[in-house]
Amino acid sequence: MATTELTNETFGPAVQADGIVLIDFWAAWCGPCRSFAPVFEAASEKHPDIVFAKVDTEAEAELSSAHRITSIPTLMVIRDGVLVYKQPGALPAPQLEQLITKARELDMDDVRRQIAAAETAA
């Protein structure tokens, strides 16, 4: 599956669906973003059951601001509507594969319990 572009209008429905969504926040002028793009695209071909999406931070400044993107590329992983990873920096292919494996292995019931406990404690 090829990557899809997300906009302010399509972001919400995409990330609220069940399953794993990997989002690459990028810009055309960003060298590390351009070098990460083929790695991200190759992973999208290898994992057709995962949504691989891109957000152009220049075109979608409001969306980038809403998600506090201050450095690009930033990779975000959302599983079953829950943000489980957000980190700036381009990943080499082996590390991206490792991240995908970890996202697949998450016990989402446990993740939701941890989030609820943290919110109660705050």
UniProtKB/TrEMBL annotation:
<dbReference type="InterPro" id="IPR017937">
    <property type="entry name" value="Thioredoxin_CS"/>
</dbReference>
<dbReference type="InterPro" id="IPR005746">
    <property type="entry name" value="Thioredoxin"/>
</dbReference>
<feature type="domain" description="Thioredoxin">
    <location>
        <begin position="1"/>
        <end position="105"/>
    </location>
</feature>
<protein>
    <recommendedName>
        <fullName>Thioredoxin</fullName>
    </recommendedName>
</protein>
<dbReference type="InterPro" id="IPR013766">
    <property type="entry name" value="Thioredoxin_domain"/>
</dbReference>
<dbReference type="InterPro" id="IPR036249">
    <property type="entry name" value="Thioredoxin-like_sf"/>
</dbReference>
<dbReference type="Pfam" id="PF00085">
    <property type="entry name" value="Thioredoxin"/>
</dbReference>
<keyword id="KW-1015">Disulfide bond</keyword>
<comment type="similarity">
    <text>Belongs to the thioredoxin family.</text>
</comment>
